[in-house]
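Case study.
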Amino acid sequence: DQQVKQNSPSLSVQEGRISILNCDYTNSMFDYFLWYKKYPAEGPTFLISISSIKDKNEDGRFTVFLNKSAKHLSLHIVPSQPGDSAVYFCAASYTNAGKSTFGDGTTLTVKP
Amino acid sequence: DVKVTQSSRYLVKRTGEKVFLECVQDMDHENMFWYRQDPGLGLRLIYFSYDVKMKEKGDIPEGYSVSREKKERFSLILESASTNQTSMYLCASSWDRTSEQYFGPGTRLTVT
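After joint prediction, the assembly is written out as follows.
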């Protein structure tokens, strides 16, 4: 049973436009959510996170939205830049889990 | 800056060989993790450790073992490598079990 799902394997957007990456989860115990970015031949790097007590967290061009009732979160990148082209992983955890559960990733391509 | 290093970027081994993958972090993190990344399957947790000499199974521990004799070092062992263990292996560390993880650059292991 996959508890964290990223249903879009890939997304292509034009430079300057908004990129929206989506993530759904099934475990209602999850209370902390993270996004990571991964370039080829490198390890993932942490991008932004959100606690379940919030519904929005913003950091520069990156905003994460959390809809607990729908068990859905999304990452918005505005404006998108070619350097944002990477694989984006959504992850979720809860206090006693001891670990994070990752989605399969979405490959974002930003075209100049 | 947190640094997580992995002993090899690329490794080629034969079926049946014993393989050691080493990971070292320099931030005094309590928690360390081993993942494998395969196309379309995201990051799957193999083992994790929250303290020296402690280990917990992740989602896919079969065929692997780990060792954590010192806080900064976490080793992944393939007792008898098989072709289905050809993959990208990523090590990570974190302050606590659910906070953001810092990843190493990965080891691309090919078993022939």
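Observations recorded in class. DSSP finds no helices and eleven strands in chain B. Chain B touches chain A at residues 4, 33, 35, 40-45, 48, 50, 56, 58, 90, 92, 97-98, 100-106 (CB under 8 Å). We will return to this complex in the next lecture.
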